[in-house]
Write a structure and sequence with these properties.
Layout: H1 5-17, H2 25-51
Helix pairs in contact: 1-2
């Protein structure tokens, strides 16, 4: 299964933009930060793997 990490960023932006509609503001913001982090980290990792030919160890 391939994950579209850009969609994680879209979700993070949605959560942030609609933070006032959730009953627990802190939980909403933590979820938004988490989604944005994984979008950035995994996009950078995949770019390094696909374009910079970085070899990633499965245990790393």
């Amino acid at each position: 299964m391939t994950v579209d990490w850009y969609q994680y960023l879209v979700l993070a932006e949605y959560l942030y933009d609609n933070r006032d509609t959730f009953p627990d503001l802190e939980a909403c913001l933590r979820a938004a930060i988490s989604k944005a982090y994984y979008a950035a980290f995994c996009s950078a990792r995949n770019y390094a793997r696909d374009f910079d030919r970085l070899v990633l160890d499965e245990t790393a």
